[in-house]
Amino acid sequence: MDQSLQNNERPPYLILAILMIGAFISFLNSTFLNVALPSIMQELNVDTATVQWLSTSYMLINGILIPTTAFLIQKFSVRQLFLVAMSLFTAGTIIAGFAGYFPILLVGRMVQASGSAIMMPLLMNVMLISFPVAKRGSAMGIFGLILMFAPAIGPTLSGWIVEHYDWRMLFHFIAPIAFIILSIGFFLLKDKKDKVEMKLDLFSLVLSTIGFGGLLYGFSSAGTMGWGSPLVYGTIIIGILSLLWFILRQSKLKVPMLNFSVFKYPMFSLATIITVVLNIALFSGFLLVPIYAQTILGISPMETGLMMLPGAILNAFMSPVTGRLFDKFGGRGLAILGLTVITVTTFSFSHLSFDTSYTSLMFLHAARMFGMSMVMMPVSTNGLNQLPPQYYPHGTAMNNTLNQVSGAIGTALLITIMSTREESLASELTAKVTGQLTAEIEQQIALESMLGGINFAFLVSTFIVIAALILAFFIKRSTPALVTDPRK
């Protein structure tokens, strides 16, 4: 990253504003499709395990490309990276908007993701070098407010669009906004960077791609192929071996693509583990709640969006508050309280029924998002605070990579758990039918088995969150450490 940014006494507010707007629109799009998934399933004739790839692939591409951002941030200027990121995002939005078939829609989402993969680590790195540790919690809180406002309006806005227009309008709505942001960045971003002699290790890129891609493909395919399929466990094994090779290679490179020395700092390591565990548990809920509301309860997309709105708004506006509390008290107390709330609400979600009220769903989701607001940003910021400034690009890249990959694996794993449980219950209920299996009975069996699958997935999530809660008791307030890596 250009050292001129770090040397400025006054934070580069213009650069931060443009980056935040770009990150806002890309973050909005990451959750924009959740409410529309049932409509896409119906029109393009795909099942739940297939349609979840629209979310999973978005996170997968982020997980594959974000490791390269540590290298990119050090080599290129903010302006160069921003323009490339927004160009890719805009192109992907246009492709998805005109998709008539599911594979084309999936390609559009993946091109979008390749742009957003650059945006988030770039913004986080500029934030870290622009504010001192004492003010970083408050700065990250404002950052969280802006980015959390995206999912606050996303479900409601997308629900209204899907209810009144074709789901493709979601992309037609975003495309011109993305183009305007790209144009603003082209004319207003002026930072420059001295030429840096760095080369990307292509073999490392291949290893990380095969590693993360293999893991996710294996977990995602288990729902349709079964865990006994050679393709499922084969790709998981290949993914694990590739990642191990990737990690060993980074330790031997003079200029690693992704420096795993960041894990020598205990608070960063602990923060990473907590956020990974929490992401595995939480991301599935963002898919399961809309599916439950629309398929089981028959709630419209617009009503589903409105149901999720209070929680998202609460999460957004709590972000500056938790930022200030973090600066004053540290992250331990906030994380313990937040994870306790998440544990209770996740367990409550495992007891959904055909009679669960709209108000109960809204309250549970709001309480869960309230808990999230006290965990994610404080825990991540506390971990990053322990890193020396030279490690910021690697820390933000590692943080974002593992967030995306854990979220993707968590989504795939818990959707697989839901689907497996759903099939098992359907077989059991069908076997109990003594008379003729009419269409009405089949539909009732399908709904009851889906409900059972969703409840079971939330129950598994509860135990995963408990693991994160236990780890939160070991958090200590951190300050920047000295560089211990001899290569630096």
From TrEMBL:
One of its GO terms (cellular component) is plasma membrane. The chain crosses the membrane at residues 12-33, 53-74, 81-104, 110-129, 141-161, 167-188, 200-219, 231-248, 268-293, 305-326, 333-354, 456-475. SUPFAM superfamilies: MFS general substrate transporter. Coiled coil: none annotated. It is a multi-pass membrane protein. InterPro entries: EmrB-like, MFS, MFS_dom, MFS_trans_sf. Belongs to the major facilitator superfamily. EmrB family. This is MFS transporter.
